[in-house]
Specification:
The complex is a heterodimer. By secondary structure, chain A is mostly helical. In chain A, about 65% of the residues lie in helices and about 0% in strands. Chain A contains four helices and no strands. By secondary structure, chain B is mainly α. Chain B has one domain. A two-stranded parallel ribbon of chain B has the order 1-2. In chain B, helix 5 runs antiparallel to helix 6. Chain B is flat. Classes of the chains: A mainly alpha, B mainly alpha. At the A-B interface, helix 1, helix 2, helix 3 and helix 4 of A face helix 3, helix 5, helix 7 and helix 8 of B.
Chain lengths: ~140, ~190
Amino acid sequence: MSRMRLTPVPGIGIVLGVALGVVAAVGCGPTAGGTNTPTNGGGGPTVTPDPVGPGDDRSMGALKRELDAFTRKKQSMVTASTSDPAVCEELCSLATDICEVQQKLCDLADEHAGDDEYQNLCREARNECREAQESCVRCVESNR
Amino acid sequence: MTIVRRLGLAGVLGVVAISGLVAMGCDAAPEGEERSEDASIDARLRTHAIVPGEPTPQGLAYLEAVADAHAQADAEGRAERRAAVLRDALALPVPGGLPEAEPLRLELAARLCETLAEQPGGVPVALDLLAPMLDPERSLPVDRSSARALVVLGDLAARSGDDALAAGSYARAIRVMSLLRQELER
């Protein structure tokens, strides 16, 4: 299988270790949810009362403040999720693998130059490869 | 009608027969190549998330047996012996309520098929084993094991001359990895 060199998923031993770990962890009793939700100083976006008074339609100013608060929260969540070096490592590993498979796909597309199906798939794969590489770079830069 | 009169019935039949032979002669590509040119690419992808099940002694025993099989295969130098170990592991009955078994089975199948493909005449055997497990109609776990198995299928298909299957498998593998990337970034 000389054409196949997808990075072995962090080693089957690790995969099994993780699987066993999950089983063990679940066996230790329920945890407080499975998601790792970052906190933002103990509170989410605060919805301020509308300056024009209750009962009126909300003003553009209030909506703008809400939007800003949500944007800040989203940004903090993205930063928190990518601040883990292990996440960056995984993102960059995925980028490498995606681009490697993209190369194989586009090699096939080269052999079917007149076939739109192959060309479209190659184009999509190139986009995925570029986006994955950008994710990797973004993550690494945010950890500096 | 003028042409028919000039050539006569026998002449017309002769022209038809010769045309047929010429057409057949143009189709000189091997069977695999012909299928590759004509087949459309199926890059459909259906996925589901793996939700860890409740731990059971049977589930733990299964996970340990699969881990042992991989360790045995690692230690086995001969491809035939390695394939036998992996095939036995793949044949192990999966205990109920163990969703984690699905990626483990895909990992086993991918490794088995890579091993089979090392042996003479092994590529078609490996294709027969792996292709049904990764049929586009089937939902695959959003997991690296799905991507890895799809790439192995793509490589096998490319080696057998089935470019449509290869391209579809590679495209699906990329989409699985892209989903994993998006999950990480969420």
